[in-house]
TrEMBL record:
Keywords: Amino-acid biosynthesis, Isomerase, Lysine biosynthesis
Family: Belongs to the diaminopimelate epimerase family.
Source lineage: Eukaryota, Viridiplantae, Streptophyta, Embryophyta, Tracheophyta
Protein's recorded name: Diaminopimelate epimerase
One GO CC annotation: cytosol
Domain of life: Eukaryota
Gene Ontology MF: a single term: diaminopimelate epimerase activity
Stored NCBIfam families: DapF
Natural source organism: Tetracentron sinense (Spur-leaf)
GO biological process: lysine biosynthetic process via diaminopimelate
Any Pfam family matching the protein: DAP_epimerase
InterPro entries with a match to the protein in the record: DAP_epimerase_DapF
Length: 391
């Protein structure tokens, strides 16, 4: 599979930032810039190792970028939340993902592909719902977060729930808020109607419950991430639980050390550690993640493998974490991971229910509400670019 011959970018400041940050490389990029829906223009950017030139527009395309269905090409949008990046694919015409897990691995490759932590597919609804979701990690594996299902909340809004409630809900909300007329989103654009009909404060129904992303004045999105799952077999982990079957501050042997771990599922499994028993306070910046991460991920105690968060507590409301994601390795952010970390910190008596969690990509605000037992996450999500790749 060759790398994309063309990319498309919206006329927004992220777009300008993206263009400015394109690194020179051999070959050429055709950038198709489009604005306010219908009028798509096609200036060409030839980029080589030493030069960049822009031709005059060649033609006006009447169809939206997302309506293009040339065979052999995959059209996508790339989003990120604090650097946790995903390729979003409009897969609404088939229950079969448009790319195989093997192709997903290639697309996610940061040198030979688009580069991402995973691929998300927006798919037709099942069981009476309008849409369903699937996700492939960058190693081609498929987390439980797949198949979260959204349906039409009322006649006027049509949504699907982004992959992991976290990143995807934030992306949906951000796309709606920032540019509902730009046809930017694979997620919410209704090709046959040519319009977007989303209401502020919309709700999303999912297999995991009702999701209500809210856009705040500062542009960040607050998402109800649902209730944490603590029963060991449901996480899943084979570590012995306490009387409620929760695994809190249990001992796990990894790499010759006894680590204290708490296990939490936010729909996907997380193993959280504040350090090894014999060690001083964990200095997360000193960790060799690529050495230790896989040993947690593939540990016998985690039958479905696990995401792992290494955490340092600065105070009872300020935590810092690094994450080794199942199927993706060290990532810059992980929303479900940050939620699981605050749940673990509360269960271990280390933190209050509202915390700022610093991740390599930036901070997330997490609250585990006592009243409803739900975890609420507040953070950003941004579109990076739109593009096509030959498959
Ligand atoms: N690697 C995860 C799935 C992706 C989670 C996402 N990065 C997040 O922000 O939660 C898994 O396999 O569970």
């Amino acid at each position: 599979m060759a790398m994309a011959a063309s990319i498309s970018l919206p006329l927004t400041s992220p777009c300008r930032r993206s263009l400015a940050s394109i690194k020179p490389f051999r070959g050429s990029i055709r950038a198709e810039i489009f604005k306010s829906g219908s009028a798509l223009r096609n200036p060409r950017f030839h980029i080589s190792a030493s030069s960049m030139s822009i031709d005059a527009p060649q033609k006006i395309l009447q169809d939206s970028f997302l309506d293009r269905k040339e065979s052999g090409f995959l059209h996508f949008a790339k989003y990120h939340g604090l650097g946790n990046d995903f390729i979003l694919v409009d897969n609404r015409d088939s229950l079969e993902p448009r790319v195989t897990p093997v192709q997903a691995v290639k697309l996610c490759d940061r040198n030979f592909g688009i580069g991402a932590d995973g691929v998300i597919f927006a798919m037709p609804g099942i069981n009476g719902t309008d849409y369903s979701m699937r996700i492939f990690n960058s190693d081609g594996s498929e987390p439980e977060l797949s198949m979260l299902i959204a349906h039409q909340a009322d006649e006027s809004d049509t949504l699907f729930l982004p992959i992991s409630k976290l990143l995807l809900s934030r992306c949906v909300a951000m796309v709606y808020d920032a540019s509902p007329d730009l046809l930017l989103s694979l997620i919410i654009y209704e090709g046959n109607k040519g319009t977007l009909k989303i209401i502020p404060g919309f709700t999303v129904h999912t297999g995991a419950g009702l999701i209500v992303p809210q856009i705040q004045d500062d542009g960040k999105v607050r998402v109800d991430m649902g209730q944490p799952i603590l029963r060991a077999p449901d996480v899943p982990t084979k570590l012995p639980g306490n009387k409620d079957q929760a695994v809190i501050k249990s001992e796990l042997q990894v790499n010759g050390l006894t680590w204290n771990v708490t296990c939490v599922s936010m729909g996907n499994p997380h193993c959280i550690t504040f350090g090894a028993k014999q060690s001083e306070i964990l200095q997360v910046d000193d960790l060799n993640l690529s050495e230790i991460g896989p040993k947690f991920e593939h540990h016998d105690m985690f039958p479905a493998r696990t995401n792992t968060e290494f955490v340092q507590a600065f105070s009872r409301s300020h935590l810092k974490m690094r994450v080794w994601e199942r199927g993706a390795g060290a990532t810059l952010a992980c929303g479900t991971g940050a939620c699981a970390v605050v749940v673990a910190a509360v269960l271990e008596g280390r933190a209050e229910r509202s915390c700022t969690v610093d991740l390599p990509g930036g901070p997330l605000e997490i609250e585990w509400k006592e009243e409803d037992n739900h975890v609420y996450m507040t953070g950003p999500a941004e579109v990076v670019f739109y593009g096509s790749v030959p498959l």
